[in-house]
Design brief:
CATH superfamily of the largest domain: Dehydroquinate synthase-like - alpha domain
Number of domains: 2
CATH topology of the largest domain: Dehydroquinate synthase-like, alpha domain
Strand content: 5-15%
Radius of gyration: 22 Å
Helix content: 40-55%
Largest sheet: 6 strands, parallel
Order of helices and strands: EHEHEHEHEEEEHHHHHHHHH
Shape: globular
CATH architecture of the largest domain: Up-down Bundle
Number of helices: 13
Number of strands: 8
Low-confidence stretches: 3-11, 380-385
């Protein structure tokens, strides 16, 4: 029997779930990619603005510019230096340069801050972007996120972008020119995916979130197994796998898990420490790695978690094997005053901070206690189990 209009039931519109902004549209990895990059880059436009740092500019001029200059599909090429940090003043100058030069796509080449700046300019100008990381220190080349800092390198805020990059070129030959310390830092940053996502996911039963958390576990285990060999043999098979893990797989986890696999205390500690380390004595992943230990120590001190104590013990052995920082002394911050530590803790605990994704209340005094005791009760000879 046909239903009359008066008997047809329509469902109320449901609230849409957050979008999954998972991955770059195209990811290429291998050796010698930059030399053959012009067809890929030409898909994005004809007038690129290359955003890089002062240390990367020589590499841009030696490796990338000849490729673009030798291809008549590119009408004009401009270069912008993001400055000492990805800060508002430099972002405004680069955005104006993009407008003045008639740029129709962005290339971000460099480390995390250069690529964050490039992604944010592309976002603000509604332009395509290609990312070319020069080290494996972060997963910035993958993600739909940019961090903004002060002109002295203190973290201010992050910006969620509407998409991941249009193209990611991971050239192993280029990555191999970076100091091995950048890969060690990238390992520390990537490790945080497990320790933070496993908490921030709140034991979600959503299929996509469960998949992201399990990928974070796989990432952690892969790094435990292969990092020492990767560092001992740069350019080898294990090295390439760890590079892929730090740049690509870490990005997959953030893209797949989204807002429910957020950063927690490890990155909040990093953010606070940037305000008391104006000399940039250590880099992003080193601070994050230390922040993981602080997060585990908080779980021990506040919740009495033996599981966290065991995990911290395991990490300390792993860190010492690789050369990751285990304490404020290792971060070269043991000379900071109690007032400095209080400032860092206060900033890490401001309302809305990622540290409040922990499943218990946290005060700055708790955080200071954890920060100064990351190696407490653990023998120097501990090794990874």
């Amino acid at each position: 029997m046909a239903l009359s209009p008066s008997t047809i039931v329509t469902a109320a519109p449901s609230t849409p779930l957050p979008p999954i902004i998972m991955a770059p549209a195209r990811v290429l990895r291998g050796s010698g990619l930059i030399a053959a990059a012009s067809p890929e880059l030409a898909r994005l436009g004809s007038r690129p603005l290359i955003i890089c740092g002062d240390r990367t500019r020589a590499r841009v001029e030696a490796d990338l510019l000849p490729v673009l200059d030798g291809d008549d599909r590119f009408e004009a090429v401009a270069i912008a230096d993001y400055g000492a940090d990805c800060c508002e003043a430099s972002l405004e100058a680069m955005q104006q340069q993009a407008i003045d030069t008639g740029t129709n796509f962005i290339i971000g080449m460099g480390g995390g801050k250069a690529i964050d700046a490039a992604k944010l300019i592309a976002h603000r100008c509604h332009l395509p972007i290609a990312t070319i990381p020069t080290s494996a220190a972060t997963c910035a080349a993958w993600t739909a996120l940019s961090n903004v800092y002060s002109d002295r390198g203190a973290f201010l805020y992050d910006v969620s972008l509407d998409r991941c990059p249009d193209l990611l070129l991971l050239d192993y030959d280029l990555i191999a020119t970076a100091p091995i310390a950048t890969l060690v830092s990238g390992i520390g940053d990537a490790l945080a995916k497990w320790y933070e996502a496993s908490i921030s996911s709140g034991q979600s039963e959503q299929t996509i979130v469960v998949a992201a958390v399990q990928q974070a576990r796989v990432l952690r285990d892969l790094l435990f197994q292969k990092s020492a060999e990767a560092i001992a043999n740069p350019g080898g098979e294990a090295w390439r796998e760890v590079v892929d893990a730090s740049v690509l797989l870490a990005g997959v986890i953030g893209g797949l898990g989204g807002a429910q696999c957020r950063t927690v205390a490890a990155h909040a500690v990093h953010n606070g420490l940037t305000h008391i380390d104006p000399e940039h004595r250590t880099i992003h992943g080193e601070k994050v790695a230390y922040g993981i230990l602080v997060q585990l120590r908080l779980e021990e001190l506040i919740q009495g978690s033996q599981l966290a104590a065991t995990a911290r013990q395991q990490l300390l052995g792993f860190y010492r094997e690789l050369g990751l920082p285990c304490s404020l002394d290792d971060l070269k911050l043991s000379d900071r005053s109690l007032a400095d530590l209080q400032r860092a803790a206060d900033l890490a605990c401001v309302p809305g901070s990622d540290i409040h994704h922990l499943p218990f209340a946290i005060a700055p005094s708790d955080l200071i206690g954890a920060m100064v005791s990351t190696t407490a009760g653990v023998a120097q000879s501990v090794t990874v189990g």
